[in-house]
Design goal:
Length: 544
């Protein structure tokens, strides 16, 4: 009997060893740059404390944030104490701003979890924040829940992580014009972005179907422009068009915007405002008809698609838009201000004697050069105020403004051309990053704009086009996923379209290229979706 017994013990040992190595790696999303698993675990308990350095305001704020995200589900007190973060502390989570972590960059961090505690070190507060996000993911998924969970043991596996992002722009666009999204919805988006270590949320604030930001100098923009009489029911392709007969609208007051900016800042998310020009402007023209080309009183648009009604290019209109930007700059600290620039049909400009005279007066060749002149005026205005203009890739047409950054949406060509010309670029191609596209068989999915963009395809995207040299590739700031909301009215539907595709984007923009593997991601995602479940996020189930 002895040999059998011996073999059994050996097998048990081998199994234990195997579970410690491969099986015991935590399922983090996005995957960190490097991770080394050690034996053991650190259990949080009634006496665990959070420790940060004396007198460091920003770290103290992060300690409070950490406490606020761990307390609801764990029910533990986790008091925050000031202390000496350099000396080892028993049964504590230590947050240390540490110049020695400089090699990990502005957003990087090191996390050491040992049996007696966790230490997160970074040279900047953003790094500490991302270390905190990793720590949350190291705990059982129930930690994302809002109510005390009696049955879970709050253990952190012992390990060492060194981590930093691959790109500085890890973004999402939220279209609040086509369907207005209340402040609370935007805040939840910000929280979910942050838990994926994403750092940019572009708010598409104006379009044909609604103007969503209070501008003090021009109150009609929201009095008139924030409301439409009804909304197209069904798809734009269907004929005849039918409408829902319900008034829709809403806007953010300047106080709302300040509140959202502060909320985002506390989570290291930069809110990038987008004010569309010269196209996608019908809501503004409905409010102030002299901004258009026909003088006609237009309604706020009730259906989708590219539109001929665009701003004129009078000096008065340019100054109007600069006034708008002036208030926008005062509200948003973002270094980048997005001026749209996409899909501005030139039919009205071609037909307008005033526009044709303007083209002549300015010595320009055609309507494309006029658009380029228009955008240049905004570029100068923003640059003089210490901000940077960013626009959709159509701003390349007719000549790109000196300081402009390009957001490449119609494939990668615009981004490639801009990077080769020495401009910074954010990649946002429809073919990989339009999360308003279908993610499965259209017959089994809610109505969407079209396209076919399953999770696996998103994951295969690489923001650096093969065509670029290493020097040119440095102009690629990162990538952004788009949530256009023509066909998305409800917050749950918005989440359904965003997740888990955004989880893939988080990994595309954070994790080193060579570490990315779809099969491995898909496996980690199963755990990760439990986190979203606990956080009350309505993600789409994975396909078999
Ligand atoms: C194109 S992307 C647009 C948006 C639409 C979107 C729908 C871009 C710059 N313009 O106005 O909402 O397609 O997918």
């Amino acid at each position: 009997m002895k040999p059998v017994y011996f073999c059994g013990a050996l097998c048990a040992l081998a199994m234990a060893a195997a579970s410690l190595s491969a099986a015991a790696m935590p399922d983090l999303v996005p995957l960190p740059m490097s991770m080394e698993r050690h034996q053991g675990r650190f259990p949080l308990n009634e006496n665990t404390r959070i420790i940060c350095a004396e007198g460091q305001k920003e770290t103290a704020r992060l300690a409070d944030y950490l406490q606020s995200v761990l307390q609801p589900a764990t029910g533990l007190p986790l008091p925050v104490d000031a202390g000496d973060v350099a000396t080892a502390t028993d049964n504590a989570i230590v947050l240390a701003l540490d110049a020695a972590a400089k090699s990990l960059g502005e957003e990087g961090y090191r996390l050491d979890a040992a049996r007696d505690g966790v230490r997160i070190a970074a040279c900047r507060p953003a790094g500490l924040f991302y270390g905190i996000q990793t720590l949350r993911q190291l705990l059982p998924e129930a930690v994302y829940g809002g109510k005390k969970d009696e049955h879970t043991r709050w253990n952190v596996p012992c390990l060492r992580i060194e981590d930093r992002p691959r790109f500085v722009w890890r973004g999402m666009l939220l279209d609040v014009s086509r369907h207005f999204m209340p402040k609370e919805v935007v805040k939840k988006c910000i929280d979910t972005l942050a838990l994926h270590k994403m750092n940019t949320l572009q708010l598409h604030l104006t379009d044909d179907q609604g103007w969503r930001i209070e501008i003090k100098k021009y109150p009609k923009l929201t009095e008139v422009g924030a409301w439409r009489e009804e909304t197209l029911a069904g798809h734009l392709r269907e004929t005849p068009m039918t409408f829902d007969g319900r008034r829709h609208g809403g806007f953010y007051t300047q106080d709302d915007i300040r509140e959202l900016v502060a909320y985002a800042q506390a989570r290291f998310v930069n809110l990038v405002p987008e004010i569309e020009m010269p196209g996608h402007a019908q809501a503004a023209i409905a409010a102030y008809p002299h901004l258009g080309n026909t003088g006609e009183q237009l309604p706020v648009r009730t259906f989708w698609g590219v539109n001929e009604n665009i701003f004129n290019a009078d000096e008065e209109t340019i100054l109007f838009l600069q006034d708008v930007l002036s208030e926008v700059i005062d509200l948003f600290p973002s270094p980048f201000i997005h001026i749209g620039g996409d899909e501005a049909r030139k039919t009205q400009w071609e037909a307008s004697p005033a526009i044709q005279a303007r083209i002549k007066e300015l010595g320009l060749k055609d309507e494309h050069e006029l658009q380029s002149y228009f955008i240049r005026r905004m570029d100068t205005y923003l640059t003089e105020r210490g901000r940077r203009l960013i626009g959709w890739d159509e701003i390349l047409e007719g000549g790109l403004a000196e300081g402009a950054t390009v957001m490449s949406w119609r494939g990668e060509a615009g981004g490639i051309a801009a990077a080769q010309a020495g401009h910074d670029v954010v990649m946002a191609p429809t073919s990989y990053l339009y999360f308003d596209y279908y993610q499965g068989n259209p017959e089994e999915e809610p109505l969407a704009i079209g396209g076919n963009l399953p999770l696996r395809r998103v994951y295969t995207y690489d923001p650096i086009p093969k065509e670029l040299t290493p020097a040119e590739a440095r102009h690629i700031l990162g990538a952004q996923g788009q949530l256009w909301t023509e066909y998305i009215a409800a917050p749950e539907h918005l989440e359904y379209m965003a997740y888990p595709r955004m989880c893939a984007l988080a990994e595309i923009t954070w994790t080193p290229r060579e570490k990315r593997d779809y099969t491995d991601f898909r496996k980690r995602l199963e755990t990760h979706l439990n986190r979203l479940e606990a956080a009350g996020v309505n993600y789409r189930e994975l396909d078999e």
